[in-house]
Amino acid sequence: MKLIRIIVALSVLLPFTATAQTHADSDTLFLTLDDALRIAQQNSSTARMIEQELLANHWRYRSFRASLYPSLNFSGSAPGIQREIEQVVQDDGSVQYRERQQGTSSITTSILQRIPMTGGTLFFSSSIERINLYSTVGANLWRANPLFVGITQPIMEFNALKWNRRIEPLQYESSRKQYLEEMAQLATEVTGSFFDIYIAQINLDLANFNVAINDTIYTISQGRYNVGNIAENELLQTELALMNARTDLERARLAYDRAQDDLRLILNIQDNRPVRVEVPERIPDLEINVAHAVEQARENRSDMLDYQIERLQSQRNIARIEAESRLSTTLTARLGYNQTSNRFDNLYDNPLNNQFVDISFDIPIFRWGEGKADREAAYANHESIQNSVELQEQTFIQEVEYQVREFLLLQRQIVAAATADTIASRRFDVAKNRYLIGKIDITNLLIAQREKDSERRNYIQTLKQYWQGFYNLRRITLYDFENDQSLRFNYHF
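^ that's the sequence the OP posted. Answer follows.
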């Protein structure tokens, strides 16, 4: 009778140790890894933050590009009224005080074009000004500048626009690559949360089975103890095993709930149904050459552009400090026409030539060594940045090489873990059958069960590490080794 009870318990409970089976169930949300990655890229808060950062960089770069094109400006002043008593010097040198009342208004249209190669500004303008003398009836004065063409050109000064034209495109391209890197990092994080649920599923199934089997063993032990077949110590041991199994079940349920909440959070889904995940059936077997991976990382990663930007910024700082330490000259030239009249109708008749040329300069004579100190500091900082960038490049290459080797090791380990899982599962089946016919005791069956559970957990953990390594390798190289192509930037603004 006791043997029949054990056989019935095992036949009912042992299937719970299998991996999570999926069935059509409207009360359960089933997800594959591809589903989770797709939802994360389309719906997660992290993905939206990554996109907004990309958009901000995109529009900053558009703003910079727009600043290189001509700009059309329209400015003016509303009628301004001025009333005061002012000094008027007479021909004999005496001074008289007279009241002045006037109103002034003007409009100006101008076109400005920056010159990146020289740092100067070319401008075209046209303006009209009207002055109303209220103290004299009918005394209005018009002044017009029909056309002015001019240039403001710094000479031997620091040209910030020239350096920005070299740096800004690199920063924009770096932001596009960072978008791909952050999306690949998101895939790695989602993969981790996805397999955390799968591990929690397996642990929950195993905990349910262990509670059931230990409850059955405890019930049988009570019967044996009552008839004197076992000692009290053995009964207490089975009772303790049952209590521990129930505690493990509560922990497994809590861990499963937390894993579900973590995945819902990272995917930003509001569906409160229980989540069951389905692991990929196919595992890519990739042949990756370390040198090829390093080459792709050098070509694709934003880090390489960032290192180049650091060098250029250091050179720009040197150029700025050197320019500030020498003669600074600015040339301003303007050529055009102007005219004045009491009548607007005659304002553009026979306009007069107007020319203006000005050269201003600033020569640092003696600064107590400030200029030399600034230059030496800039040179030292440049050398420091050069050394730092070289070290960062070497560290980056080493990290790529390590990630490739670690992934190749995971490929071998997952084969070994799958083999061990299969062997342990077969061993448990053999032990279960031998137990049912009375060839082994319950202790050997439980040992086989624990080993099967342990190897199953080890396989799933290795599977998680493999897929995380798979997506992390894509992140660090921005290369799809499965399809043998670089990751493409396909975001549409």
